[in-house]
Design brief:
There is one protein chain. The strands form two sheets. The chain has a seven-stranded mixed beta sheet, with helices on both faces. It is α/β, with parallel strands linked by helices. Helix content is about 40%, strand content about 15%. α5 crosses α10. α8 links the parallel β4 and β5. The protein has two domains: about 210 residues, Aspartate Aminotransferase, domain 2, CATH 3.40.640; about 130 residues, Aspartate Aminotransferase, domain 1 (Alpha-Beta Complex), CATH 3.90.1150.
Length: about 425
């Protein structure tokens, strides 16, 4: 037994003792004596605190007075009232992610799409203009081009490869939206130049950082006003949670965003926060291995006769400048016309490497943008982005590198 395993944790100072006594008193008031079982009658020592954070499933909290409720809802007391406005698991994770991103505050939402939708609802008005990168996740494109235009928002597109032209295009815009690493063709954006262009034009920059996470890129430090992520991907890393993140650079933007999330019912769930918090702890180790696998696989596939093109940030000449901490765990490969089809390749790699229409798991998975993430764009829209039925997206996991390379080589032979 190690020292940390032992219940003898050493002397408890007066402050800690007072805290334990207050916690015991609160526990006693929360549980009516008539409902206690014999096991619950046994005194509980609070000198030991569980290693894992607890899951708090309450949807509402009792208030001592109307004044207490008013202070809690105003955000001045730090107390919880109603889960839609915050809960312990949300706060624990949000505070940590805000710190990791260098933002004023973070807001968690039910999914990644609700995070970016909340920013749009906060910042845009009827008649507003938004400029978006010409290559984005399919649902984000649908949100901007289809759903927001119903409310009188004008949407124009720009290329992240030509940041010098963005300032002119963004004139009069409220928001500029881009991805750190584009989905699915993996082009790394120059966030600092985009931020300068957005601010010169009077717009705020929103960066979807899902394919990078704070481990590879911190857009707020490069000038972005908001960063969003789908936390259910590699941050969670185990395909068992759905959660969105929006971090604001300014406190005022964060407060307005939190109000939007509450009003539109976009709040997070305790279980998803708990599971994502668990994944966050191991993210640095997992993402390092996944990036190593992706870099090796990208280089090997680029030499394969049945691969027409490989999209991976590490293959860009400026990758080390734009992504100095690593080029990511995602890549795309475009199969040649005379080689195996995407469906045939999926069959050959299954079940060890499955076809999964998502990404960021501990195991390597395959996806097919034309039929999943970008299906809503239609054939013409996909062709414009260089996406065909022979485009596959690969999310690299933690498998031994040589094993991974051998499986792909055999399937593509």
């Amino acid at each position: 037994m190690t020292p940390q395993d032992s219940p003898q944790q050493g002397p408890v100072d007066s402050t800690e003792k007072a805290g334990h006594e207050a916690l015991e008193a609160q526990n006693a008031s929360d549980l009516d004596q008539t409902q206690r079982s014999p096991a619950q009658e046994k005194p509980v020592s609070h000198a030991q605190i569980g290693q894992a954070p607890a899951i708090e499933l309450s949807s509402v909290w009792p208030m001592n007075s109307p004044a207490d409720a008013d202070a809690a809802l105003a955000g001045t007391s730090g107390a919880f009232v109603y889960r839609r406005d915050g809960h312990p698991n949300d706060r624990q994770l949000a505070e940590k992610l805000a710190m990791l991103h260098g933002g004023a505050n973070a807001v968690l939402t039910a999914q990644g799409m609700s995070a970016i939708a909340a920013i749009c609802l906060t910042e845009l008005r009827p008649g507003a203009k938004a400029c978006i990168a010409d290559e984005l996740y399919g649902r984000t494109q649908r949100l901007m081009h289809t759903d927001l235009t119903k409310w009188g928002v004008t949407v124009t597109e720009f290329s992240t490869s030509d940041a010098s032209a963005v300032t002119q295009l963004a004139k009069g815009a409220s928001l500029l939206v881009a991805e750190t690493i584009s989905n699915p063709c993996m082009q790394a954006a120059d966030i600092a130049k985009l931020a300068q262009a957005a601010h010169t034009a009077g717009a705020k920059l929103v960066v979807d950082n899902t394919f990078a996470t704070h481990a590879l890129c911190r857009p707020l430090e490069l000038g972005a006003d908001y960063v969003v992520e789908s936390l259910g991907k590699i941050v969670n890393g185990h395909a068992d949670a759905m959660l969105g993140l929006a971090v604001a650079k300014s406190e005022d933007d964060a407060n307005q965003l939190a109000a939007t999330v509450s009003t539109f019912g976009m709040a997070s769930s305790p279980l998803d926060c708990y599971l994502t918090h668990r994944g966050l702890v191991s993210l640095p180790v997992r993402i390092e291995r996944s990036c190593q696998n992706a870099a090796a696989l990208a280089q090997r596939l680029a030499q394969c006769a049945n691969i027409d093109r490989v999209d991976y940030p590490g293959l860009q000449s400026d990758a080390s400048v734009l992504l100095p901490n690593g080029s990511g765990w995602m890549l795309a490969a475009h199969l040649t016309a005379d080689g195996p089809t995407a469906e045939e390749l999926f069959e050959r790699l299954s079940p060890e490497i499955p076809f999964v229409p998502s990404l960021g798991d501990v195991m390597t998975t395959l996806s097919h943008p034309a039929s999943t993430s970008h299906r809503s764009l239609g054939p013409a829209g996909r062709q414009r982005l260089g996406i065909s039925d022979r485009t596959i997206r690969i999310s690299c996991g933690l498998e031994p590198t040589e094993w991974l390379l051998e499986r792909f080589e055999a399937a593509l032979a």
